[in-house]
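Quick one: structure for this chain?
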Amino acid sequence: MKIVTWNVRGVCSPSKKFGMWKNVFEGQWDILCAVEHKDHAKAGSFIQHNGYHVCYAGVNGGLYSGVILIVKDILQPVVVQSDIHGRYIVVEINYEGQRIWIAGIYAPNEVAQRIELWQCLNEVLRNGNPGFLLGDFNMCSEMGQSTSMHSLMDAPERAAWDVFAIEVLKCDAWPWINGADSGYTFQSTQFRSTWSRLDRIYIMHDERFLPEVLTMQVYRGIASSDHFPVILECTHQGVDGFKALLGRQSLRFNSSFLEHECFKHAMGQLVEEFSRQVNIGGASSWDVCLSNIQRFARHYGISQAFVRKKKVRALQQLLHRCNALLVSSPLDDVLLDIQVILNQALQDLEVRSYQQFRVRDKKHEVYDHNSISHKFFHGLHASHARMNVVRIEVDGTLSTNPQVIIHSCIQYFTKLLGHESILDNDMKEARAMFFQSIKGNVRQQVAMSMEEDIREEEVEYVLSHLANDKSPGWDGITNEFFKSFAQDLKGPLTTIFQEVWSSGNMPNSWKIGLIKLIPKVASPTSFGQWRPISLMGGLYKIFTKVIANRLQKVLPSIIHPMQYGFIAGRDILHNILNVQMAVDYAKESRQEIVMIQLDIEKAYDHVNWSFLAQLMSEMGFGTRMSRLSFMLGVGAVSHVMLNGGVTKAISLTRSVRQGCPLSPLLFAIVTHPILVKMHELAICQDIVGLVLPSGKQLIAQALADDSFLFLKAHPSNIAKAMEVWKVFALASGLHINMHKSLLIRCTEQDLVNLGWSGRILDKGNICRHLGYPFGVDISPNQTLTWISGTISDKFIYWKSQAWPFATRLKVVQAIMIPMISYFLPLLPWTKKSLDHLARALRYTLWKKESNIGISWVSWLHICTPKHLGGAGLLNLEDHLVARRFSLLKEMCSGSQPWAEIICYFVEKVGIHHGKTKIRTSWWHVINSTRTFRCSQSTIVQHLVVSWQKSLKLFNWKPPECRKDCNSLPSEVIASSRLLQWDGKDSLKSKFNRMAKLGLVTVEDGILESQRQMMAFRTVRSRFHIPPGYGQIWQTITQLPILSSPIPQLVVVEPWEDWFFDNKKSLVAVKTNDVYHKLVKDRVWVQSKVLDTWHIIRGSEWCARVVDAGWKSHLPFRAKVFLWRAMVGGLPLARALKRRHIGSGTCVFCTTIDEDSRHRFISCPVTKSIWIGISQLWGSLTGNVLSPFQWVFIGGDRVLPSPAYQVVFDYLRYLGMWYIWNLRNGFLFDGLSGVSQQICRIRGKLIWQFSQLCCMGTLSSDEVQLCRFVLQHLRRLPLPHRYF
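Got it. Here's what it folds into:
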């Protein structure tokens, strides 16, 4: 185990963070105490890397610079105590079965504060566990620890230190190991001849817990700090025990190498060779090509790393030797100059390495907060999970032994994935019971289209739509590789895929999977508490995606409508709304029902291949589709990724792999027969569910493996339903986990005798259904309190992080608001509860503590769309109205159970004219201008109110029903809807309107006899007709013409014509349309921007300037800064003065108030910076711009080419950014010498444009122009010494 203490002297810059983590990984440090990170506001950017946990002490605005402990996850770190001001932090770890303490400190410079620290640490540590105390002590306790007397402690501090040392410290580890060696760790930057051992490691209480200390050294080959790391290394078998017992993970293809022309050319040649060999070797030719790609990529990566490391190692050795010589000759000027040169060269290499690293691994862009990709936040989420398996419960005891954990892992997954079931007579009978209900579901034409040969267009589509930054499988080949050579690969891949598709034989090398374990709980202790996600190889994913695209097109017409998971056009909210409406309707109709939330045990992993194959064949799929499960499964193996290694191969005999593109679709097919059978039994009255207003029964629904039953509360009824599921489990392998299944009480009936062996939820209690709070007889306040607590718990981590404003804005936008948005549509939110959520978002964004802090831009303005000048965050109230409007709009054109129940409640409410209640259709009620109040269902109340608000917003006026008709009987004219004859002589073809809606075709069978028609209840149940057609059907049955041939009728619905009209329809209105309509009148830019900058122009011009900043190619951080500057969101002196903070004057001018116009346009220092940038721009375009034009020309400029746009945006941003940083440096960091600081800006511009050229995100023209800018910058006649 390696324990390191290092004063990093600030890690605010991205390159220094990268350098620190690089040393951690390359040095294989187990524990690092990094002190003096200097900025608590950026301590949160130490995002946990896979395998490491970061603990830090201190708060923004604290007194000290802070201490950070980086500890390997396998040591199970737990924070014992930390100092709010960042002076110390104590962490407990598991060291070879012992719980020891690691205490990191950063001692203050002032003597009085250090005395206070020693006394405080004495109280904290004297009764603690053995361990290590390490960090920067900022003083020397003995003469030999420094070449100067200045660092020695005085008498008062000596007294406090001695008490602390006697009670807590056992020994100083350095002299205990290395004897009289000085071991200096610090060289003064002011007095270069002064060396000290300020960074030390002490052993606390007892050294007997240590096995054998091997080495302790000071590493002086690092140039990023004036302190050197102290490394203590001792034996510890547990940390690397897994890698010794497990196999190595395969090479991961480095996608950044594709930007190297020589590498891409070599890869292109290998792909060409693969294309030539396909016709000879077939599918196996890919294995040969893959081996060549992996070999070349490995050698190329090694050569690149060798060249870089060779340079770094040479410089580090020279620097180490130079520093060693300076210890003995501290006044040698030549050595001091060499030291400066070597430091600068090493830092330049580190910066270039960091730039390549950012291109190679996008998720680490958190270091400079430049990421504009939501994928980074997915990586951020994943980084919080503890991926290492550190302990497993075996026979009732927790074990951390690597051999025990590995054996338990292999045993568990062999049993889970390798269990083979025998097809006996009972299983055959069970399958036959379900297959008879779904036989021939797939029409022959559809089945034939699925069997067609694989076309090149399909492969090309999949290749072009592969997502970047996805984890590769065992082969290590990333999606970026396939996308780069898509045009060359699409032909040979089509040939290979067609060979596999037609023969049904997939190469076994394609079916190798890597199982990545994702924890389900905070501290998992068994492998059942990890979710196994399979990472598949590149060709496997592309092939299965081609087949999945075919399946996705036909499944909506095949799979039962009550399966909502992963089927196009079906929404998770519909599943939730069914449950909520069922509770309200059962209570209203006084039906005695119970609801059962079923949990299928390891659903995806228990799918039986033979059942799936036989099921698809019985449904009518062709031969190729039916054998899909065997083609993907037979011969498949998986390796479990465990703590940096991989286990031996585990053979699969069942399961559809989580992570395979086909898995969710195949699982939807597996659950299809049970849903069909349950509804079939409900129609036959063998099982009774919830009877809907139309007479149809709601009996079962599912979202993938989350199933829900609605049953009459009778023991025999529940027993029949569960017996059907038991038979299905026998047939398919999907067994119910009764320990997790839940029966929800919706009735007053006693549930003791219902024969249920699982959990029971009584009235008044809350459970979760797909994340939503759910229960019976739950008040809206209870629901909102529960969900607010749930959301607040999820917000705790994000609110506690002290990130820069741009990162907090992205966190709020990409993580926190989506959390809230999911719960918005179907809960009874009040204005107060929405304000509470908005307040939590505001506090996170502006980093407020207990409502203390300044919101520099109002929340209403932040929630304004970007094209109107805002930051584009969602306004919760407006988004809620828009989402509910869309739900009710779907009700108008659908036939879901929830829609039927809502129509029932709406029609029951009716329209109130004074004290008179008028019963009419639901359409007239929701479009009425009268106040709508539904006491039976709060959800219906909120949905209708949102609908009415949206109609008023768009000035929509639904048409009234027409009352005139030329040739109709009076009975028809009196109906609430219009019926017209079309002159034909039979009713048996169809109703045109119903057919147009796609809901029903009335055939001969609808007539029970020539003179009698079915009851509407039967028609509703059979043909899923919306309830609004009941009145039409009643009118039809009353027509006095049944003795004569029945004519065809055309149902003319004026509101439907208006609703479905493609040109002016509500169907075409999307959620975003309603949302933007709600916020479009908030054109606040005119007043806000113009007042901020004291100018008079139109609002459209202002919005265009702000919007141009958002649409630029700048990093996200830069866009946020420009937006804050434009809308007055920066803490300028004049704004602070209004809040009684400071004098309000400019730090340079001292007599003029500092507002936005003065800071960025009219200040003499500002003008000097813009003059230099304008000279550079003039050399490029011939136009010299004024400071005002630089700030406000953003939306009104004409440039020679798009490449100039990128350069202009960067120069504009960098100019304002350097002005702001220069102001802050003088105000807070004690900078001096304005002219010298301005001259240094040229060096910063050179570095920025060099970095821009290396990023790999610009076109060739843009890169060429940036290099041209670099040439001009280097020729500017500015003093060399200032750079």
